[in-house]
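Lab notebook, bench 4. The sequencing result for the construct came back, and we need a structural model before the next group meeting so we can plan mutations. Quick request posted to the team channel:

Model the 3D structure of this chain.
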Amino acid sequence: MKKSHFWVGPIVALAAANANAQSSVTLYGLIDLGINYSSNAQTGRNADGSLNGKSQVNMSDGATRGYGGSRWGLKGSEDLGGGLSAIFTLENGYNIVNGAIAQGGAMFGRQAFVGLSSNTFGTVTLGRQYDTQSDFVANYSPAIIAGISGAVPGDVDGLGHTRRVNNAVKYLSQNYRGFTFGGLYSLGGQAGNFTRSQVWALGANYAIGGFSAGLGYFNARDPNLSSFGNSPNNGGPATNNMGSAGSLTTAQSNPIYAGYSSAHTYEIYSAGASYKYGGTTFAASFSHSAFDKLGDLEAGPNPFHYSGTAIFNTATATVSYLATPALLIGGAYTYTHGGGAGGDGSATYHQGIFAVQYFLSKRTELYFFGVYQAATGTDSLGQPAVASIELMTPSSTNHQFVGRVGIIQRF
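Done. Here's the predicted structure in token form:
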């Protein structure tokens, strides 16, 4: 993939000291636009309080319904000598349909960090970043074939790249004979309470030949604020940043876990593995996610008066096949079971995915995916569970199908 480069010379006053140093800044980006069909999208409630929904056809940016989401960014590096480099990344997400800034209006809401990279010791970066599950486990999830909409329901395992971490210090090791590892810590910044709103994560990966496997752990205090509420348009503890119960004229949002915004801690254990044989890749993942100690009103509202812990266990299986150098076909199945809080029921979600990518060139591709989800039980809003494909408008029923045809152009 060809990218544009801007070469920056050393500052004149330091030219002698940096005669052998080189600096570069790379401009890069991606545009993802498509047309969607949803078999059922909520429009509000009927007079009797039941949910109302209709089929929908619309155009949208990939940030909400596609593979990756439109973006542009700048990456820079400076050779400091002795195998050490200074690096930075500034990445902006935007909506190609209307030009609006994504990630809640943050100018560089996708990523914004600076750091040092050593050929010997690894890389340390500081700023707004993905947690280490994205580095070590995400490549084993169904999101690899259908992007955000292929993530598990609600992206409850955090492997769909839908959330970032602010104020984060992150370390990634060098590759030691196939083994890599890393960790992240985010300072909560709360006066008088060092651990309030902190986030930390660990991960590791091993790869040899066509086999690879990864492990991850994620822990966020006050997740309604630190994990789901860290963009400019989010509110404080009185606001549910994790979702909404909707109204007579508006749809619900994230009914899978919207009722758990008062969690004191959000924990995720994740693991995955893949094996590549010729043009076929098999992948599987498992995750255990928990919203612990519900009822913390300093973290978020608790309209359903939940207590205890809500748990989600998820297993996925994915296969992709490179039929020709230009044609990639994939399929996946996801099973998610959520244990209700305070003894209030549970919900189960079955999800199937089929995806096709056709590469017109190294920079341009056409794609299609279809996602079907069926739900049973009782969800976090205390209602019969409704289907809710990630980042789509939830269905008014227990099932939903979404199909999308799109184009991606990289630069």
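The chain has one domain: 4-410.
Will bring this to the meeting.
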